[in-house]
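Review form for a predicted model. The reviewer records the input and the model, then writes brief findings.
Reviewer: anonymous (R2)
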Amino acid sequence: MSTILKRRYEEGASGIIDFTNIKVRNSRLRTNESDKPVGHAFSWYINKGEVHYCDGQNGLIDAARYFQMMADDSFIEFARIDNLVLKEENLSKYFDVR
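Model under review:
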């Protein structure tokens, strides 16, 4: 994943990674005892040519270990978000903007 992000984005870029419909092995992320798929999202950023992964939900400064916890059939989505422009008209759909 780091190689893909470094090729696609430049220094200072940041975004999110979402593991959707995954079966996490030996994980605190599992919410029940069944083998039902779970999902999780965490952040990435590029600093000094290296990709760093962090998880604000769990307080992990180094969230790269999530990649080792994934099942072979995991689905990954990623997006860059540091270049987004927030527009009040878009936010007003979801928030009371005054």
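Findings: Residues 36 and 83 are 35 Å apart (CA to CA).
Further findings: The mean pLDDT is 81.
Recommendation: see findings above.
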